[in-house]
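Posting for a labmate who doesn't have an account.
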Amino acid sequence: MMADEEKNDQGAEEQEQPVDETPAEEPQAAEESSEEALAADEGDSGGDQPADAPESTEDEGDSGDDEPAAAAGGDEDVAPPTPKEIRKLARSSVDGPAEAPRSGEERAVERAERRTVAAASRRRARVRARKKRSDGAGMGTPPAERESAAAKSRVGTVVSDRADKTITVRIERARRHPTYEKIVRRTNTLHAHDERNDAREGDVVRVVETRPLSKTKRWRLDEIVERAQ
């Protein structure tokens, strides 16, 4: 019996407690109403100030400093223009109407015309150069006279005929010195081939250059100019 009475008392207390029927969203509604009131007060006091305007000038300075830094960083990453891009920019800077694209045949015709004009210009330049040479103007230094490719010949005196089919010839040369105007005499000897052993010591002979016949012989006897007495 005691247990039943206690249960009845607890049920009566639960019924007596008031039920809180206020919705849970009332605090949020109160906060929203307070924010709307503040916004209305600011609108009455500020007037023309836009809602998106920056709060302070410090933010503007910070943003301005960031923009050059960003621009500088972007310049470092940008690659230099290629030659093709440079040519394209040069063509785009030319004043006047844009040319229509040309076909390959039109380009070939234009190239042939340019070559024809260049060939005519070169032809006229050659004609002028030939006429200038014929008149004798601007000849400059005359070309040097070239020596003949014929075999060289020397006249000398036989100084030895002791070797078989070989004579030793002394060649004397007398020339005027280019600076001191003095006659300078020079002598050199050479070995010549005498096939028939005709030359004798003291004879004046003429020798002619020939192919190498031995280690020292590069000349051969051509004729005996004068016999020794």
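Reply:
Got it, the structure tokens are right above this. Residues 33 and 39 are 10 Å apart (CA to CA).
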